[in-house]
Structures are given as structure tokens and as C-alpha cells.
Write a structure and sequence with these properties.
three-stranded antiparallel β-sheet, 4 helices, globular, binds NADP nicotinamide-adenine-dinucleotide phosphate
Length: about 170
């Protein structure tokens, strides 16, 4: 477990759905603000596919790191090439808060080393259609340490911000 590796995601409540056809399932205005406030001036790491789904990139006022097996360089962003590279980076930058920002592929590789999960939980009355998911996690390993009230937009399901910390 790394004290400086966190994950941040918006997922549906029942099926942990996060994306479809390379895009997010929902574009929730207040959640995007929450994501920005939480990650501002920190380090974000995301898979190459998620990075290229951002309408504006790199995300401003954050250190942007792209995880890719390719050798391309991307203006305004750093690249790392393996899980081991990321763990080395986290070890050598203990002063940085590192937010793993997805997607599906990347979340599933890093949930075993993260110490906190910042999860926006979106109500799911009917199962949504998705092709990308956040991994299952259990209350054996994680405890809910903070939970907001529900935000209720006019034209989207309601949602709330939760933080889970790994049990010691
Ligand atoms: N709801 C949310 O909060 C949220 C957040 C983020 C993403 N999403 C959604 O998730 C979906 C994208 O997820 P995804 O799984 O398809 O793609 P992804 O995880 O964003 O990116 C996968 C790519 O990351 C690179 N990669 C992954 N593991 C690596 C490793 N160990 N070493 C080196 N490179 C590695 C590879 O890039 P190369 O091919 O360049 O080698 C791989 O093709 C989209 O629908 C997106 O909207 C949702």
C-alpha cells in the first residue's frame, strides 16, 4: 500500500459502471468541479485512452502523467511505461499526492496499492449500459471515511461523494 497513491472515479452504485465507447457515462457539472478541486496542484496519472478522452489536455495546474506502453511524447505531460514505473515514481516523490484517474484497465491494476478511493457514487435505478467498470472492492479492506449529502441535478441521477480509506 502506498500512502500517496489515491484513486478518483465517478461510478454507478450497483454495477460500478464508468464508461461507454471511450467516453464517461455522465458529465456531471458539480462532479467535474469536485474532481478539479480535489486534484488541483496535485499529480494525476491516467491511461493513454482516458487522457485522450479529455476535451482539453493536459489538465491545467496539475502534473499530468500518461501511462502508455508506447514511446510517443505528449506536450505538457510526462509519460510512464509500466506499473513498476508508477510505483518507483510514487516512492521517489513521497511529497506528492498521486491520483490515479482511470480508466478501467488502469484502475484494476492499481486498486491493490492505493490507500484512498475518492468515489462519486451515482444512483442506478435501472442498470446502465457500459463497457468500462471500476473494480469490485470489499468492506473487509476498505472503510467509508467521508460521505457528502446527495447532489440532485435536474436531468441526471442523483449522486454523492464518498471517500474510502484502506483498513490498516
Ligand atoms: N467515470 C470515470 O470516473 C472515468 C474515469 C476515467 C476513465 N473513464 C472511462 O474509462 C474508459 C477508458 O478505460 P480503458 O480501460 O479503455 O483505457 P485506459 O485505462 O484509460 O487506458 C488504457 C491504456 O493505458 C495504457 N496502460 C494501461 N496499463 C499500462 C501499464 N501497466 N503500462 C503501460 N501502459 C499501460 C495503455 O496505453 P497504450 O495503448 O498507449 O500502450 C492502454 O492501452 C473510457 O470510457 C473513459 O471515459 C471513466
Amino acid at each position: 500500500m502506498f500512502d500517496n497513491i489515491f484513486m478518483i472515479v465517478a461510478m454507478t452504485e450497483k454495477t460500478n459502471s464508468i464508461g461507454l465507447n471511450g467516453d464517461m457515462l455522465y458529465h456531471l457539472k458539480d462532479d467535474l468541479k469536485y474532481f478539479k478541486e480535489t486534484t488541483l496542484n496535485e499529480t494525476i496519472i491516467c491511461g493513454r485512452k482516458t487522457y485522450f478522452s479529455f476535451p482539453k489536455r493536459p489538465l491545467p495546474n496539475r502534473k499530468n502523467i500518461i501511462l502508455t506502453r508506447g514511446n510517443n511524447e505528449y506536450e505538457g505531460a510526462y509519460t510512464l511505461h509500466s506499473k513498476e514505473d508508477v510505483l518507483e515514481y510514487a516512492k521517489s516523490h513521497p511529497e506528492e499526492k498521486i491520483f490515479i484517474c482511470g480508466g478501467d484497465d488502469v484502475y484494476s491494476q492499481f486498486i491493490d496499492v492505493a490507500s484512498k478511493l475518492y468515489i462519486t457514487i451515482i444512483d442506478e435505478e435501472k442498470t446502465v449500459v457500459a463497457d468500462s467498470f471500476f473494480p469490485e472492492f470489499s468492506d473487509k479492506d476498505w472503510e467509508l471515511t467521508s460521505e457528502s449529502r446527495y447532489i440532485t441535478p435536474e436531468s441526471a441521477p442523483r449522486y454523492k461523494y464518498c471517500v474510502f480509506s484502506r483498513k490498516k
